[in-house]
Amino acid sequence: MASKINVYFVHFVVFSTKVSMLAITLTASFLAGSYIFYSSRRRYKQLMQSTVFVPLIYEITASIGNYFTLKREARSRQRRKEGIQKELAHL
Fold this sequence. Notes:
transmembrane helix, transmembrane, membrane, 91 residues, mainly alpha
């Protein structure tokens, strides 16, 4: 029973971490988008050429991609686990 609780706790921690990463990513992208929208055209051009903005967009995009990669890997692990359990059930 204790190991089942530990598994649920780990799943909860992983899920809440993913949700908080997604929330931070969405907030950062919203703030960056709002800043661009409200800034002047000249400032927008300067911003696109700055050394800070491009890595920020790269990090946001990478974290979103990483989230979906982790999700896909978790589904793959789950399918593998179910396949092994199914094979063991036939023995």
